[in-house]
Amino acid sequence: EVQLVESGGALVQPGGSLRLSCVGSGFTFDIYDMSWIRQAQGKALEWVSRVTGSRHECRQTTYADSVKGRFTISRDKTLNTLYLQINSLNTADTAIYCCARGGPKPAPDQYKIRGQGTQVTVSA
Hints:
This protein is an all-beta fold. The protein has no helices and ten strands. A hairpin with a 6-residue loop joins strand 4 and strand 5.
């Protein structure tokens, strides 16, 4: 069974940091591009970041403009784990964060393989 399980979400103060993790199982994790996506309450799903898989010659990372310079995506193939380091958190980052297999999609329902998510709440 293909599975993605996120962890690491928490309640943090503005300016704080978190590291989110996502463990993949049931598929060859390392070869796939992997993404973080997020959804704030009442808002549309937003793609956040992507890291390429080993099928590509070079490992590449890309970010949404809203998080560039504050978020860092990485992966550990030995642990089948995807990470998202989040720094300088602000209230606009409050959302459920999910990992998803693949790169950015044009529509939310195209993220076929995704986890249940972990809640990040930024509040004073």
